[in-house]
Amino acid sequence: MIPxxxxxxATIPGGREPLKLMRRGGEFSIRLGAVELMGSRAGGSEAAxxxxxxxxxxxxxxxxxxxxxxxxxxxxxAALEALGPEAEVVVAELVPAVVAWARxxxxxxxxxxxxxxxxxxxxxxxxxxxxxGTAAYDAILLDVDNGPAGQTSGANDGLYSARGLAAAxxxxxxxxxxxxxxxxxxxxxxxxxxxxxxxxxxxxxxANAGRGAxxxxxxxxx
Length: 222
Hints:
seven-stranded mixed beta sheet, four-stranded antiparallel beta sheet, alpha/beta
């Protein structure tokens, strides 16, 4: 078996451990310590996050979507496939190196996504962007961690708090969608979404093409 090669290391603002980009042949993995946060072979549920949200925007001709977390581009790709030519997709990525990886060693995985004219990349905290907007977005897609019980950065906790969810509610236009990806169920978080004023749906999606672990997608309709 081909061994894993350490390609690069990135510091996470406010994080406890650095991120590592690993490669094995044509396969890539982004890890936090020994934990794989994402891999290039399993992005089914991340893509489902975008599809489930964007399906609910079929009536919006010029949808504006905010994605928290660039990852390996699965959510971004699915959003662009689901949205029309006049849509605008803003991607907020906290770790500048992840953006650099997308244009460098992961360029084959991204396959031109970063150059789509509908895409704007912001290196910064998605929480700050959400708090700065009022009725600014038709959908907000959050895949910045392994779910509400975050691992990568303590700053992410604010996204999932009552205050963070209230900010997301304000940042959405009427009928807008807040979609949140999680590795596992979290009844307390689902309750907070309801109390923030969202009509809540909970979906399950496989990690990869109908196989692998089942992940959770919460859809909150404003």
